[in-house]
Amino acid sequence: MFGSGDADARVMLVGEQPGDQEDRQGKPFVGPAGKLLDRALEEAGIDPSEAYVTNAVKHFKFTQAEPRKRRIHKAPSLREMTACGPWLAAELAVVEPELIVVLGATAGKALLGSSFRVTQVRGTVLEEEIHGRPERLVPTVHPSSVLRSDDREAAYRGLVSDLKVAADALS
Ligand code: URA
What we know:
- The chain has seven helices and seven strands, in the order βααβββαβααββαα.
- By secondary structure, it is of the alpha/beta class.
- It starts with 10 loop residues before the first strand and ends with a helix.
- The site of uracil has 13 residues, from helix 2.
């Protein structure tokens, strides 16, 4: 599944992989995590409709206890992340965003390598060469981790605060 949004977007958001809803609708971030992300972006001063949204891994990986039962997300392997790398590189080459918002560990590892640790670099502006192009990136947590957090409000505030760093870097 490709990303969605304006090919002239100034900011590209990179998530992990499509979830159940995304897989059904053929668009990234249209399920619960996407709704939370849109709200956080708006609060941080970034118009979600002006962002290009995509995923590091292009397919939904899941387990299913029985046929027709709920499909449960499975984390992608390094091999799957690497296999999808050329598609993400192609999206970056077309959109040429001014800033990449890295949503969580999978996107971070896919773009910046396996030593990426979101807790160490979240809410900072990184400058790195990616697929031969100089890029500016702001890492933050994945919006799904906010939904799973014991203290949702604090986790949400943290996400918005990191996204404000991205908004400032764009202004
Ligand atoms: N989580 C992601 O990482 N991407 C989506 O598109 C939806 C949920």
